[in-house]
Amino acid sequence: MFCDGCGAVVQPGQAFCSKCGKQIVGPISAAQIRPGRVQEHVRLLGLFWMALSAFNTIGGIVLYVLANTLFARVNQMGEPVGPTFLRPLLSTIALLLFAKAACGFIAGWGLLQHEPWARVLALVLSFISLFTNIPFGTALGIYTMWVLLPAQSEQEYEALAEARAA
Fold this sequence. Notes:
The protein is mainly alpha-helical. The chain is built from five helices and no strands.
């Protein structure tokens, strides 16, 4: 039960608000507690991170297959066809995409489970995605930072993690 003037907690039978002094008129009703911003958005963030990670995985598979089929060909003399630096370069980029996808899956799962470490991992990945996955990673990075970066969000996420652990 809360004061309709300032939102302070009001006890049953109290005639005036102890915080603002407003007179309590009529019956005191119990207000619905509105979930915080983090609680509203954390499930969606987890799903978005898993979806982006699935796309990173597909991109990694395509690059790895291209690197080891198209650029791995040799002619009849045993010499490589095409530029020789492309195979190791594309393979390395594919492995980095796989690593980023694995971290994204872990962050998404952690956010869905309200794990304490998932907030930090999602924030690190959001910063990386700002520049590496234009435009979808940039949008998801901004959204993740908007939800999880403020200090109030940190406190709310910690409360969600503690509630899950209890």
